[in-house]
Amino acid sequence: MKTITINMMALLLFTATTFSQEKLTNMSDNFMLVIHGGAGTILKKNMTDEKEKLYRDKLNEALQAGHKILKEGGTAVDAVEATINLMENSPLFNAGKGSVFTNAGTNEMDASIMDGKTLNAGAVAGVKTIKNPISAARIVMEKSPHVMLSGDGADQYAKEMGVETASPDYFKDSIRYRQWLKLKETEKQQLDHDATEPKGNDGIPEEGNNIDPSEIEFNINIDEKYGTVGCVALDRHGNLAAGTSTGGMTNKRWGRIGDSPVIAAGTYANNKTCAVSCTGHGEYFIRNVVAYDISAHMEYKSIGVDEAAKQVIHKKLNELGGTGGVIVLDAQGNFTMQFNTAGMYRGYMKANGESEVMLYKGND
Ligand code: ASP
């Protein structure tokens, strides 16, 4: 009896394994993951070896998490969510835990996700109690009849749908707090990754109105913790997805919302063209409709990801005076990582496990 049971179990196991192997062999071998952790004034000279290692390790960990999901046949949406969750949970990045402070001393987060197969999309803006805003965005995409929810309503909806919540204190990070204190009195808002260039409310740097550079040096050298996070993925079913999550700009007020939760500005995915996640000065990304514009360039001009991203970032965004970067991936696995800032936390992992993480200009 015992032998029969063991034999039956072995048979079941064999069948299940063969079945899942068969399922996997029916899928494409081509899959791909690309991530960013924010673009900005990221310079080798301002980075200690320890800090650099922390960033590289975390970016590698995020790549591995997403890659595993894709390898096992998971969807691009699954991979994007899990990869971003990992970065949201790290105080190294300006998303989820470690989000920057608003003028009111709160942390208000934005996120969006888009499925390139269905063109379905979801976003939350200004949430304060959702541990992983990208997961709330996914719930909005998959379970609600809407694309974007904001403020208390978004918090409430995500909570009702069972998305994990956290107390406002969970998001507070002492270093972000000190960054904010330095800016608070100036009434300026600042990109988390752009500490050397405080902006006026219209986004234009104001002469003579900058915060003390020595204070900024303090931030850069000791407290450097930048970055909106984003991920684009191609799965073994041939589908693309993109997602972006952020705390926005330090000292933001009046319910300011950037590009990250705005589909077409900060995030876009379409199997026919590409998946895009942006980071940078949100106002410019909204005005340039950056993510969608890259897709439109590909669609209407029949050009590839690299050329399309270069035209939008290095030409159109530059002309308007915007700064930031993008990661872009197409359904064949071609990808590009473009930015017009000093650096961008970024990395990719191919189906064969080949991967690279880079922080600065060039391949470093
Ligand atoms: N794009 C984000 C925003 O403007 C900020 C960032 O990417 O760092 O809210």
Which structural traits does this protein have?
364 residues; alpha+beta; Glutamine Phosphoribosylpyrophosphate, subunit 1, domain 1; 11 helices; 14 strands; 39% helix; binds aspartic acid
Secondary structure topology:
Elements lengths: L1 H24 L6 E9 L8 H23 L4 H13 L20 E7 L4 E8 L5 H11 L4 E3 H10 L7 H4 L2 H11 L5 E2 L21 H11 L5 E6 L5 E7 L2 E2 L16 E3 L5 E6 L1 H6 L2 H12 L3 H16 L3 E6 L5 E5 L3 E8 L4 E6 L4
Parallel strand pairs: 3-4
Antiparallel strand pairs: 1-6, 1-13, 2-3, 2-7, 5-8, 6-7, 9-10, 10-11, 11-12, 13-14
The structure holds aspartic acid.
The site of aspartic acid has 16 residues, from β10.
Give structural notes.
The chain contains 11 helices and 14 strands. The chain has a domain at about 30-115 and about 220-360: Glutamine Phosphoribosylpyrophosphate, subunit 1, domain 1 (4-Layer Sandwich). About 55% of the residues are buried. It has about 375 residues and is α+β, with helices and mostly antiparallel strands. Bound molecules: aspartic acid (ASP).
